[in-house]
Fold each of these.
Amino acid sequence: MARQDDFLAFAHIGDLHLTTAEADNARDLQTLLQRLRERTELDFVYLPGDNADNGTAEQYRLLRRLLDGFPLPVTVITGDHDMEGGDLGPFYAELQVPQLPYSREVGGVRCLFLDMCGPGTGGPDFRLGSEQLQWLEKELHEATRLEQRCVVFMHSYPADLQGPGEAERVARLLHEGPVRLVEIGHTHYNELAHDGGVLYAACRSTGQIEEGGVGFALVTLDGPAVSWRFRELPDTWP
């Protein structure tokens, strides 16, 4: 479809925690994907990590089967449960997704996808590591030079980073850079938090739901304006 520059639209499906095909969350994911498959105005669907509850190859193969034939691009990042086996080998081998971190320009917006988990030791040991920090700083500097707005995709808040000085450094980089929105998972709740410059948005879990019904967030960035709205499955469009 014809799109204006500096406009991004995507759907955010919360942490899946997939285990088996017979579990409720696998069936819920199928329903969510069916609901979204005709939404051609969306640039992609975002999965924020904790895709496989135990990080096993079998659980990732289940995710691949559920995504098979889905017509929209799907972007997937890592969460702590994806590291439960000790590394991200099954995540990359089975999902065949790009190596994190990476940058992609969509609708004139620079989208930055980060790995908070691979550089750590597992569990809540969230880290970016020196190379990824340098990469992030370079990407934000380049976006500033080109006058591009950015959206950052990471599993949790910068405050959860455990590397020496990482929490403060990343929060400062995001706040001082051209970042309008940071999309996260991990919390299992719908949360919107603003630091005076950047909106942080977390989406309700799909696989370990702790509030309300299952659903997804519809997110747009239109120039400087951010729209974020959660829809439970029974809700009607638009």
Amino acid sequence: MLFKVEMVINIPSSIPAAEVQEVKSREKAYSQQLQQQGKWRHIWRIAGKYENVSIFDVADNEELHEILTGLPLYPWMTITIQPLCRHPSSIRDDDK
């Protein structure tokens, strides 16, 4: 199943900079692992903001929930999710 996921990150200013960098490092490694597995198909930064729009390709809602709650930055995220389906005019064979 494909999902469009919008993530807004708001790290409290009270978190020490070293801790923030460590969490961001773990976040990057985790997200890149998911991209290599094909579960996190696309990720785009929203220009000028600490936000992103991503496309996930997962088995079901439960798998998406597990992935998102496993993100190291998850405690500081506001997440919006929209399920997607293939558009009949798409020329892409890998749209599910």
Amino acid sequence: MLSSFAAPSGRGRGAARFAAATLASGLLATGVLVAGAGQAAADGAAESQGGATATIGGLKTYGTAVIRGEAGDQEISAGLFEMSVDGGGTLQTYCVDLHNPTQKDAKYHETPWSGTSLGTNANAGRIRWILQNSYPQVNDLAALARKAGVRGGLTEQDAAAGTQVAVWRYSDGADVEAVDPQAEKLADHLEKSARAVAEPAASLTLDPPALSGRPGERLGPLTVRTGARTVTVTPPADAAMSGVRIVDKAGKPVTSTADGGRIYVDVPEDAAAGTAELTVQASTTVPVGRALTSAGRSQTQILAGSSESTVSATATATWAERGAVPALSATKNCAKGGVDITAVNGGDAPFSFDLMGTEYTIGAGESRTVTIPLQEDQAYDFTIEGPGGSAQRFTGVLDCMTQAAEAAQADNTSTQTLTEPSPATVGGTSPDTNLAATGSSDATPVIAGVAIGLVVIGGAALLIVGRRKPSEQD
């Protein structure tokens, strides 16, 4: 997602455009970037501004379920996925998009509910209750069986299958049953007992995700939000050369902090216009109920269990001596069906930009959020270019609806379901079929050839591509 503007323009405005690009797949690496005038474009930025990043393995503990439909019954595997966390740790998840395939070895990142189908699902809180009150959070299977009225006990496979079935009933509105009677009994108990529970906080974030101001100032504060006891703060890679420091309110260097800690970016008075990206990292368990999404098109997951895992968050600071000093950040907003771009102007002149024919102006010292509307499954590939060749690139896909919801919206009941979480295939197609290449029709936009519109954002080139999910799979 779009997280920052590179080097600012003294005039405060310039050209930006939407142009076609290819579908993004996978996360771009998180790192530290200091971009002054003349620096080459950054290769990319993390899709998430905070939390865990992990690679999905496959179903580890599961049973069998049956989806009831007008076209007949279909058996599928139902249970717990396992993910390996970058930097160390393991996550256990259930899926919340029944009819969407899972890309093999897809990269996932922790995401707020508002950036997923859970954000517009009135039953999202009930799903979290199910996760808190079933396997693997409740690993005393005898006690779980007694509570659910299951005679004969539960195996791990029964417990995982029953829990996943109950989740699907709320996440997808699916008519689905567990094949094993004990698992089905558990699913019924969980569905009937579920109560709304609030969304959990992120495992680690920095607020706000972007700052702007002038050289000679302490930009901030950035507030740390985490469940971890301690957080390591990493300064910019060339801090010794640039003189940029990470400090506390009193100006003392900070190398570690905790929840609620406030840190600042201290920029030397003689620093050239530029941007610094800092990273904080911690080891903690990820809260149950956190959503995890892929930058490509792989089914959304919801966290059911976590070992002690490595989590991180990034933020950017942008500065210039005079004029408008815009810093940009963005998040997916499923309620509005688009990507929210927040522009913060820490300079001494207004920052103006055109967005789809509408001009917006952010006064000196002010901030404003505007929404870029996108179609469901529309891939975006933003490259923000500043003066002197500095740039940052951000990619993603707007994935706000389950496949079932999209099918219902389009009055289409032909959506296919995978029975395995292995390479993305649809129906009876070849096992080598890639999700991004399936489902094309005569009405599908040509990815490499559609210009969508004109946007002006502070001297930056903004690239975006549209691709809608087809109503039928080939």
